[in-house]
Fold:
Amino acid sequence: MSFHAPPRAVRVHYLLVSLFLIAAVSACTARQEENTGAKAVQEPSRSTPATTAQVADPMASFASMVGGEWKTTAASGRSMFDTWHWGPGKHSMRVVTDGLAASGNPWRALQVMYWHPGRKEVRMLGLNPYNASVAEGSIKFDGKTADGVFDMYQSGVPPVRRKLNSRWTFDGPDKYQDSLLEAGGAAEYVPLAAWDRVRVAPRAQARPPAGEEASKVSEHLKVFQPFLGHTWNARGEVKADSRDGPGVAFHIETTFEWIPLASAIYARSFALRGNGEPTHVLDTYFYHHTGTDKLRCLALTNLGESGSGVYEGDVTVPDREGVEGSGGAALQLDLKGYVGERALSYIVRIDVEKEGTLHQRVWPLDAVTRDSTPMIDVHHAVSEMSKSILTVFQDRKGNYWFGSDVQGVYRYDGKSLRQFTGEDGLCNDRVRGIQEDKSGNMYFTTADGISKFDGQAFTTLIPVKGNPPDKEWRLDPDDLWFPAGQDAGVVYRYDGTILHCLEFPKTKLGDEHFARFPRSQFPNMRFNPYDVYSILKDSKGTLWFGTGTGRGALGVCRYDGKSFTWISSDELGFGDVALCVRSTAEDKDGKFWFSNTLNRFDVLPNDPASQVNSSVSIRKEKGVGRSDDRFAYFMSSAKDEIGDLWMATYGAGVWRYDGKNMTHYPVLEGGQPVTLYSIYKDNHGVLWLGTHESGAYRLSGKAFEKFKP
Structure:
């Protein structure tokens, strides 16, 4: 694709609108210029003045970075993983890095790379948790080598400013070395660190890879709390000038996401066409700038073939005391930016109203008072159901329950939708699992424990630890089992009266982990090798518990009411990849699959007269391998009415295994893969999907379609 600076006249069908309507304002301004013959005055910048020369697509070389993940290995042997995503259009990319830091603590960093039409260079913004680091600079990349120069600001009194240089050297398309250098006293760069990066098949990424503390929105960004966990919809008309005709109608949808550890708010905006088809038009990043001690905003727009726009500025929180109708939160964005070679400046005001809407107004910078008529005045309302629906369940009465990431749980009876949150008694609004007992009571696994709902009220179940802690291990067909959460190292069994907190019998691998990472030296490590991520009761009533994977990890535990049998991560075939067993599946042949398709396992009874501690032996068989370059690990699984096994992956859709062949079912939104969390078969045999950011889907014919209550 060739990149050209957008013309002054941006055609109406490229009028792409976002939450802040920057793209819409830009387009209307361009159309006004065409009608009046006026030329936009370019805003002075600290960079070299822009020229009118056409340039080749500056982001084309970055396209090679998309696909799979980049495993990053430091000199210490510690590994992390980079995942590259296109932003709106093909003029920006975001890179998410996650893994464990050298301390053993979870790590997530964010980089944004984008073409700046005003500066005529590829810019970079980096956010990472090490000393609240913020990096800003530019990078040149030709597909073989890269050279980036940036300033890094880190916390301190005063804040520390470092001049750094990043250099990439490729050895083929799937391997490169990243060297980091720092400016020395003689203005020369000296080596600071180096990493080897190799492209690998994508893992199923935990969201987020952090403990409870990291999942809390930082104080600097608390003002965004009312924005999170909702899908905001707005319809209206934007008109830059009363002489400019009737204006252009828009329908937009925006979500806000807190990125833990990187400490940023990421907003995605889509313009919806008449048929509801979304077009990704804007990415917006909010973050605290360590160097200036101010909230900052970076907004990147997509104008289709007409190019892109970049807006940057400070974010302030106006005083709203005494304002009628105030919901207690407000933001003002003072934005300067470029669409092509046009320099544009706007003031954007967003107020959270008491009735749960966002009231947004936009003024050109020359509108010196807020009493002047805004060029945009619109309200954004919350959609009926969260876009982050992680899990789906149908109860015996036929009601559907949808567990969300941050908005509690929804009940749908076929006619109306009812939401339940912490205000109704749910112990936390992050719902990870849903179950029902034989009496029809509902149970919700949340980030803060287990909530029981009897149809009238919620009760939080209090775990009770036995003495000794493994005393209450037993199998009863009516008991319910729950994972206890991160760093708990236990599992819960509920017998209808008591929520028993059970410890696993100690293992050699578990002891080795605690010897290697003693809590006295790693008090902030949020990982326990006995943490449970999935539970399956198989066709014979035996329980399977999925734990972590990677070097020295425990893998899977089988409990038959008498003995425990472990299958280590090495035996499962994960190697050194630090994931977890998020799903155990039993196929129509009675064989077991543990979150990957490389191997399956058979359970064979041991001779009771033998001296083996376990009542069974586990035999590994070859699975189906990789169905393509992406798929091997699955997040969740379900068995349909005829016994076929369905496996939901993180970003590679759904796969069906009929005992011989694999069939792929892509799940896309706006042409992009949907990140899946769960798959579930309801009482009628219909398959449902829970997703991170795209709502719920259900199988209709030969494709999964988005569910709209």
Notes: Helices lie at 22-36, 508-516, 569-572. The first strand starts at residue 69 and ends at 74.
